[in-house]
Design brief:
Number of strands: 0
Radius of gyration: 14 Å
Shape: globular
Helix content: 55-70%
Distance between the termini: 44 Å
Number of helices: 7
Order of helices and strands: HHHHHHH
Strand content: under 5%
Structural class: mainly alpha
Largest sheet: none
Length: 140
């Protein structure tokens, strides 16, 4: 299935990262979908975003996951769309979505590792971002 999006806006790329981490284990929990929607609704970076694009971006991510080199293509689109100053933002959003259901599975850990590598996130910065996500998603 051909990918309908050939380029992404910076906001599309952030959504693609969130959808990718959520879909990493082929089971998209409702809590992660709610977390993605809440993020889009409340973060300033999405203030002017056309919410109708989110569904198209999600479908494109799922379609790319079906292709042999789809993940590589997805990261190419994300890197092309995101200014480097937003790489850590993308990683932070991925960590928040991964932590939203209270359990980070092995497939999600591997996807986070891939995102870190693809976006060249410094390991020390990544640890700080990960600890922040864990702190935000703690339960009693």
């Amino acid at each position: 299935m051909p990918n309908p999006l050939t380029s992404l806006s910076p906001q599309d790329a952030l959504i693609a990262v969130m959808v990718a981490i959520s879909a990493a284990d082929e089971d998209v929990p409702m809590s992660e979908l709610i977390a993605i929607n809440r993020t889009i609704d409340h973060m300033p970076i999405f203030a002017s975003y056309d919410i109708d694009r989110a569904a198209r971006v999600s479908k494109s991510v799922y379609a790319l996951f079906e292709e042999e080199d789809g993940l590589e293509a997805l990261f190419g689109l994300i890197r092309a769309a995101l200014p480097e100053r937003l790489y850590e933002t993308a990683y932070a959003l991925a960590c928040d979505i991964a932590a939203a259901d209270g359990a980070i599975r092995q497939t999600e850990l591997r996807m986070l590792e891939e995102i870190r590598a693809e976006l060249d996130i410094d390991r020390l910065h990544a640890v700080a971002i990960e600890r922040g996500a864990r702190a935000r998603h703690m339960t009693l």
